[in-house]
């Protein structure tokens, strides 16, 4: 039983539950919650790809995690690297097979765009200043476009995808700040390693301000209403403001670790803003 848990831990179950929930919310936004076949397939594709990427990423990050995350299953020896490789391969194949059942555009986004990006990021782009961060953000935003394609409503998911991209980009940069010591030791040339803590914090603040202001624009143009604004302010704008004020005062690795987790849930909160607006208005 303990061994099973370690294998599940490798796949990061909380992330998988979050990604499945995100697809349910996406379906609700597009009034496709009753299309259970499409909904189930989109969840399976996203969860399989996410789980496969998590396992593969832990393989690539093995040496770095010995410093940054010493309790990860591969580092402790609870899961063998060979086993993680097999799991990752099976899950990538399963996700691709599920994607082929969906609309051709959804299959193309999953297999032709998301899958190569996942692999290229882990092997080449990871640790590349800003480009690596943008790649992770693009992968998450693609999941929303993928859901839109699966339900035949890509245009509905463009703004949510843009918000997800911005929040994820900032979160990845904050996470790089939190991991600066381990990344430096491992020889990764991340943006904080290259330019330092203070300059990285300034870029985070600029990004947070752009996202905070940009997310309000659809409301001011009457594209979304007050339900959107209320959830956005509580779940996105306030956390972004906290980051800006905290980093302006004194950027620190400990703060970055805390804010990295906060921003993970801000992405879901942003999605809920669209959901609430769709159902309350």
How does this model look, in words?
The protein has 281 residues and is mainly alpha-helical. It has a single domain, classed as Farnesyl Diphosphate Synthase (Orthogonal Bundle), CATH 1.10.600. The chain contains 14 helices and no strands. Helix 4 packs across helix 10. The longest helix has 28 residues. It is globular and about 50 Å long.
What are the salient characteristics of this protein?
about 280 residues; mainly alpha; Farnesyl Diphosphate Synthase; 14 helices
Task: Describe the SSE topology.
Layout: H1 2-10, H2 13-29, H3 36-60, H4 62-68, H5 73-76, H6 81-99, H7 104-125, H8 131-150, H9 158-178, H10 180-186, H11 191-195, H12 197-220, H13 226-249, H14 253-280
Helix pairs in contact: 2-3, 2-8, 2-14, 3-6, 3-7, 3-8, 4-10, 7-8, 8-9, 9-12, 9-14, 12-13, 13-14
Radius of gyration: 19 Å
The description of the largest β-sheet is: none
How much of the sequence lies in strands comes to under 5%
Instruction: For the record, give the distance between the C-alpha atoms at the N and C termini, rounded to a whole number.
Output: 47 Å
Indicate the low-confidence ranges by residue numbers. none
Overall mean pLDDT:
87
CATH architecture term? Orthogonal Bundle
Please indicate the count of domains: 1
At a glance:
Helices cover about 85% and strands about 0% of the residues. It starts with a helix and ends with a helix. Helix 12 runs antiparallel to helix 13 (about 225-250).
